Amino acid sequence: MTQAKARLISLVFLLLTGVALWQAQYFKIDASADTLLTKGNKLYLITQQASQTYNPEEFILIAYKPESSAIFSEPVLTFIDSLAAKIQKIERVKSVRSVVNVPIFAGMSSFSADIDPNALSWQQQRFSEEKMKYALTHHPLYEDLLFNKAQTALSMQVVFESNKELDKLNGELVAIETKMLERELTDEEQERADELRSQKEKIEEKLSVKRKQEIDQIREILKNASADGEFFLGGNNLLAYQMINIIKNDLVVFGAAILLIVSVLLLVLFRRLKWLVLPLACCFVSVVFTLGLLGGLGIKVTVISANVVALQIILTLAVVIHIIVQYQEEVAKLKGSSESLDQTKIVTRTIKEKLNPCFYAGLTTAIGFGSLIFSGIQPVITFGWMMVIALAVTLLVSLVLFPSLLIGFCRADTKHVTVKWLDVLMHGLASAVDKFPRGIVITSIVVAATGVGGCFLLTAENSFLNYFKSSTDVSRELTFIDKEFGGSTPFDILLTIPQSQRDPQLVVTAEAIQTLEAVQAKMAEKEAIGSITSIADFTRMASVVNKKPLVEYELSALYYALDKQLKDDLFGAYFAENKNEMRISMRVIDSTPGLNREQLVEQVHADMAAAGVDKANYKLSSLFILYQDIIARLMNSQIMTLAIVYLAMAVVLVFIFKSIKVALIALVPNVITTAAIMGFLGFVGIPLDLMTMTIAAVAMGISVDDTIHYVHRFQEEVANKSDNPVRSSHLSVGYALLYTTSIIVIGFVSLVFSDFVPSILFGLLTSLAMLLALITDISILPVLLKTYCSKAKPAKTQPA
C-alpha cells in the first residue's frame, strides 16, 4: 500500500464517519419495561389480550408523606387538592385521583344506581378528619393506592389520556397476534402485523418524548410546592425515565473518565503521542460507525445492551494494541539489520503477521457474543446481533483504517520504548511457567472446580429496585412506593367463570363471587403480594353501605342500571361480561426480603387448586408473570448458549490451528475464566437476571481473544526453533496481553462508582474476566502448550 492509497482510504473512512455520525442521530435508548419482554410467546399474547379487555390506565403515583400533620387533616387535604389542580393542567393528564376527589361511599345511607359519585367526595362534603379515617380505614379500593396502611402517607394517581390512534393500532395488532395461540399467521396477516408495529413504533417514540416532558413538569411543580413533607414518585414510566437518565449520565461521566484513564495509560506505556491519538481515533470511528448502523437499522439500545459502546472500545483497543506491539517488534528487527526503516514496509509486515490472529480472534469473539442469539430471549438476542455488528466494524477499522493512518500520516518509529519493570515482570512470569508447571496445573484445576461449584449456587431473579444504588433518590422513591403503597410490579389472575357457576339471568352468581373471594383471601396471605382488587371488593363495599350482604339479583340490577361511565369505573377493570371472566389485580412487593419469584408462582398455582379452581379456568398474566417467564428460562438458556459457544469455538479453533489438540488446549483458559466468573456470581449471591446473564458471553468473548494471539505466537516461536518458546512468547505478545488488560481493567473498574448497579456489575465483572483471562493465558496455557505442543508445526492459516 502506497502513502497515497493509505491517505485515500483514510479520507474514505472520514467521509463514511461523517455519514455514520449523521445517521447516529437516529440511535435511541429505550429503557421501557416493554423492551425487556419476549414478544410473541403465549404469556405475552395473553397479557396483551387482557390489556385490551380491561384497558388498565397509564398513571404515575405521587406519594406525599407530611412531616407534622395527619394525612386526613384539612391542611394536608387542602394542599393535595391545590397540588392536584396544578398537575391537572398538564396537557395529557386526564385526572388526578386522590382521597380528596374520589367518592367516599361510607357517607351514603344506601348503595343504588342513581348515585352521583362526585357528590360524595371530600371536595364536595368536606368530611371531618375522624369521618375520613373511619370511612377509609381498611378500604378495599383506596388503601395501598391512595394512602398507605399505616396512614402516614397519601398519594395522587396521575392518570393520562390514552392515545386513540395507538389504542386502535394496538387493538388490531392484538387481534392478529392472538391468532398465534391457535395457528401460524398467514403471509398477509404477518405483513399487516409488521405494518401495524411500524406505525405503532412511530407514535410510541413521540409519546416517549412526551412522557419525559410530563415527568419533568410534575417534578418542577413538586419542587416549587411549599410542602411540609416529602414526595416520592413511582410507576413504570418513571422507572424507564430514571434508567434512561442514569444510562445517559453514565455514558457521559464514565465515558469521559474511561477516556481519560485510557489516554494516560497509553501515554505511560507507549510514550508516543501517535500511540495515543491513533487508537483513540479508531475507537471513535468504531463507535460512530456502530451507532450509525444501529440507528439506520432501527435497533434500539435497551438496558441489557447499554454497555455495547464500552464493549466496542474494549475490543477495538485490544486489536489495535496487539498491532502496535507487533509494529514495535518489526521496528526492533529492522534496526538490527541493514534494511532501511521504511514505514510502508514495517506496517505491511506488521499486518501480514497479525492479520490472521486478529481476524480469527475477532471471529471467535463474535461467536461468543453470537451465542446469545440462541438464548430465546428477544432483548438478549438483539444484544447478540448488536455485538456481532460491533465486532465486524472493529475488525474493519483496526485492520484497514489503523494501518492506513500509520502509512499515510506517520513516520517510522525509530525509538522502541521499554519499561524495565515490565521486562522484569515478564521474565519472572516466563520463569514461573518453566519452574512450577505442576503448581500452575493444580491451581488451575482448583480454580476451575471451585468455579463449577459456585455455578450450582446460581439463582435467577429480577428486581428493578435492585438496579439502583440504595443511596440514590430513585431507589429511595421506588422502594418507598413499593413498601408503602402495595407493591410495584403488576400481577393478574384472570378467572373464567365455569359453566356450573353461570346463570343467564344474572351478571355474576353468588358461587362465582365466593370462588373469587376464596382466591383473593389466599393471595392476601402472601407477604410478597401487596394491593389486591377485584369486583369482590365492590360487593363487600356495597354490603357495608347497605348494612347487609348484596345478593346476586341486587348486584345484577345495580350493574345494568348504573351509568356507563360509573359502570366502567367500578366494574370495567375487573369484569368482562362478554367473556364471563373476572380479573384479580395484584401488585408484587419487590422489596420483600428473600422473595423467591419462582416459588411465589408455584404457590399461586397450588392455592388456585386448593380453592377448587381448575387449571383450565384461570390464567396468570401481566408484567410480573412475563418477567418471571423470562427468568425461568435463564438457567436453561445459559446452559444452552454456553454449550453452543464452546462447540462452535472448538470447531473454529480446530480450523484456525489445524489441530484438535491445540484447539482443546486453547479452550482451557476460556473454560477456567468463564467457570470462575459464573462461580463468583454464585458464591457472592449475585443472581442471574436480564443484565448479568450476558456476562458469560462477555467473559468468553474477551478471554478467547488473547488466547488466540498467544497460541499463534507460541507456534511461530516453535517453528523458528526458539530455545525457549514460552519466554519468547511472553516477551513479545505477552506485552500486548498485559497492556490490553491493564488499560481495560483500570479504565472500566471506574464504573463501580456509578449509581446504576448493572453498570457497576459490568465494570467489576469485565475487569475480573480480563484479569483471569490474562492470568490463565500466561500461566496454564503456556504450560499446556509447552508440555504437548512444543514440537507442533505452525498454523497454516490463510489470510482473511
UniProtKB/TrEMBL annotation:
The UniProt record lists the Membrane transport protein MMPL domain at 210-412, 616-791
Which Gene3D superfamilies does the entry link to?
Multidrug efflux transporter AcrB transmembrane domain
SUPFAM superfamilies associated with the record: Multidrug efflux transporter AcrB transmembrane domain
- Membrane-spanning intervals of the chain: 251-270, 277-297, 303-325, 358-377, 383-410, 439-460, 639-657, 664-684, 690-711, 732-754, 760-785
Return any one Pfam family short name: MMPL
Give an example GO cellular component term for this record. plasma membrane
Q: Where would one find coiled-coil regions in this protein?
A: 186-213
- Keywords attached to this entry: Cell membrane, Coiled coil, Membrane, Transmembrane, Transmembrane helix
Location in or out of the cell: Cell membrane
How does this protein lie in the membrane? Answer: Multi-pass membrane protein
Tell me what this protein is called: Putative integral membrane protein
Q: Please tell me the species this chain comes from.
A: Saccharophagus degradans (strain 2-40 / ATCC 43961 / DSM 17024)
